[in-house]
Amino acid sequence: MNLTEIIIENYKSIEKLKLQLNSYGNKSNESKTTILVGINESGKSNILDSINSVNHQFENHEFETTYYKLGDITTNEFIDVFYNIDQDSTFPFYLKLFSAKIKLPTELINSLKVEKFYRNIFFDKKNEIENYFAIEFENNLFWDDYCIETSNSSENVKEIKKVTVKDNAVYLNQNQKLLTKDDFELLFIDTINERLKKDFPKIIYWKSTPEHLINEKISLINFKSDTSTSLPLKNIFGICNYTTDQQIEEAINRALEYDEFKAELEESLTKATTDHINKIWKEHKVKIKIKFDGDDCKVHVEDLSTQHKYYKMKHRSDGFKQFISLMLSLSAENKSNLLKNNIIILDEPEVHLHPSGIRFLRDEILKIGKNNHVIVATHSHYLIDTNTPERHFIVEKNKKTTIKQLTNSTNFSDDEVISKAFGLNIFKELIPENILIVEGFGDKSIFNHCFSLLSIPTSYIIKNASSASKIDSFAALIAEERINSIIILDDDKIGRQKKSEIIRNLKNHFSKENVFTIRDILSDLPEDSTLEDLYPIDFLNETINIILERKDIAFSTEKNIIDQLKSFDKTLNFKGSKDRLDKIKIELNEKFRNQFKTKEDIEKKASRLTSFCKELAKRLILREQ
Fold first, then answer.
1. Which of 57, 164, 250, 374 has the most other CB atoms within 10 Å of its CB?
2. Residue in 368, 358, 362, 302 with CA at minimum distance from that of residue 332
3. Where is the Endonuclease GajA/Old nuclease/RecF-like AAA domain (predicted)?
4. Is the pTM of this model over 0.70?
């Protein structure tokens, strides 16, 4: 079951709030992780706690102290949390289950249109709680054209039939009654309710509680009887392919009985856990030592920088203990393929962690979000995903808690917009660690298109400066923040001029090692070459003849394309012709991306562009951070 949205009403500082559950990013960076950012006391924890209401059922909550503080209890008597279910992906499946139990006319099945499909948890002023599924259909059919037929021996609904009409009168048998929209909705939910409960995503609220933390000593006797007493240890076994409680119990029993198997199990658990942690936290190399001592399992940590210097878990910092525990509670389970289709809630998991640890934590949370919806609340700018701004929602409280989603077009240097999230300018943290700067959108779209088709691996995010005339200002901002970057310019007069100016004026950050014209990358390009010189000649001939409504245009690879184009169409030399030339460039760009859609197309028919991208990739890899 997939959820699309969670709606919270009248909960503490929240009057009404909608949180979309989407996937953000592209390809390797795609993840269903949502990050809530905001200063302390903005209401982030209230959002998470209300989402978790499926689990806590408002236990230990008093209505008057939980109800929205500025609300009027006399006019709205409920605290509500709605979990909207994805109709398109789920309704056909549940309709099939329903119709397998209760026979339906084909005409009715084909007419059904869902308006709402959701789960609702509500809490009223009598401190009563309801937890139910509901579906609402569109009123697009005549419901009383049908009747409900029960079994003769019971009240159980057996079938829904088209009513019998004779002489303008409806005839019903004793065990039949006219169908209403309300009746059908209730019947639908009642029939599949147990399956809905089973399929509803599990909501996991990770906190620093004993069952989530890896402790110094864990009783193996207690653990093998109930593996939920230590989720990290359970997942340590999971990494080693002991994925069921029975397999874990059998392994522990053998280890307690046979010393040889105990040593073997200790070694395999130690190696698997160490490998897993070191893949995540690459900067901090450690060895996690798992040791069975009598009926207890003990966990020690060896700093590889100081060999054989072991620490008991109780002597490690709170941040280290929390990081390791989180990775072994969630990441290990995700790696074992046991963590799927859940909603995972994390409230400030970065607490006590060093900035480098927070970044590694962020990367692992994004991986977990490939198979689960992960909702993270943070006030650390180190936890943000610099490559995907739209993943973030700014949480603010001005009397009431509100959220605002960032977009790709967000101006990250605008303090007025972004400082609301953390109380500081986080321009540097909201831009990628590695940037490839190009002149305009056309360059960006072509390079992204080709990098994708050619499967060129790079951590660089391509940003365009809008035009060559603005690129030096963009470069100055990047230089000030010391962001690792490479600049690619056309080899025309303005491109060469901007290259010289950037290297001269920003020499502390830019040089000939990271500022290039396209001719620096591919030396066989003609003088004054631009992006258009990378297109295949056959493509240019065909496309420009169509655009200019000509049949006689034939380009050469010996001279740059723009000068040749201006010689074919003299009007492009006139003052004020820039807009028309730009439109031609845009049309070339769009037609190229529409025609060249596979790796084979690019490599066989666009050899010059292929060579350029591969040469550029070599420069990027050399300077990658």
1. 374
2. 368
3. 1-384
4. no
